[in-house]
Write a structure and sequence with these properties.
Rossmann fold; seven-stranded parallel sheet; globular
Length: 246
């Protein structure tokens, strides 16, 4: 049975991604949560639905000590990690005007959305290198596309901010560097936008369903040996191909 770690997985898209992976019957999922009580409550819900191959793992991606402790805990349970889905993320307080946003807001958002992903990936990469088919999915946003942000005809052209979008653009850049470094290995590394989904993250203003968003993440977490790597996928940006311009 393949092993998976999903950060920020106690609710919303992360939680549904756990559920969909469990539905395949091929994965044992470690449900990452920065609040262990909430993580255990999420696991209890899944157990009640009949899913046994899941347990909570305490991990706060903005806390280096928490990440290292989680790595030690997981290392005591498994020899290899097959899938890492870097899902944990924050929006930060809004508005985020470039000329007025508090620099501390930008730092806070980048700490989770960018530096947190790097710290988690580096902490668990040794376990992943032991896998026969390691997969990394960095959960990004359609708002990360610099090309589209420069196009006045883009449907989200006026949705701009100095913290959240740029943090995901930086994440995309890291994804490119990571995929390149691992290009001659069995790793598949991709940035995936779950879409503008109705969740607490956006006060449920999103138009997409959580189930559809999770399916996008699962798709690239489970790709085969001939699957893509080093790509940026967003059905919101490119519904025909799913491949978004950077």
């Amino acid at each position: 049975m393949r092993t998976v770690l999903i950060t920020g997985a106690n609710k919303s898209i992360g939680f549904e991604t756990v559920r969909q992976l469990l539905q395949t019957g091929r994965y044992y999922v470690y449900l990452g949560s920065r609040d262990m009580r909430k993580g255990e409550e999420a696991v209890a819900k899944l157990h009640a639905e009949g899913f046994a191959n899941v347990e909570a793992l305490l991990i706060d991606v903005s806390d280096r000590a928490s990440i290292l402790h989680a790595r030690k805990e997981l290392g005591n349970k498994i020899r290899s990690l097959d899938v890492l889905i870097n899902n944990a993320g924050i929006r930060g307080s809004v508005p985020q005007q470039a000329t007025a946003v508090d620099i501390d807001v930008i730092r806070e958002v980048f700490e989770t959305n960018f530096f947190g992903v790097i710290a988690v990936t580096q902490a668990f990469i040794d376990l992943m290198k032991r896998s026969e088919a390691p997969r990394i999915v960095n959960v990004t946003s359609g708002l990360a596309s610099l090309a589209l942000h420069s196009d006045p005809n883009w449907k989200y052209y006026h949705v701009k901010g100095a913290a959240y979008g740029p943090s995901k653009s930086a994440l995309n850049a890291y994804t490119v560097a990571l995929a390149y470094e691992l290009r001659d290995t069995k790793f598949k590394v991709n940035a995936v936008d779950p879409g503008y989904t109705a969740t607490d993250f956006n006060e449920h203003r999103g138009t997409g369903a959580i189930e559809d968003a999770a399916r996008r993440l699962v798709k690239y977490a489970t790709i085969g040996v001939d699957g893509p790597t080093g790509q940026y996928f967003s059905d919101d940006n490119s519904p025909e191909t799913g491949i978004s311009p950077w």
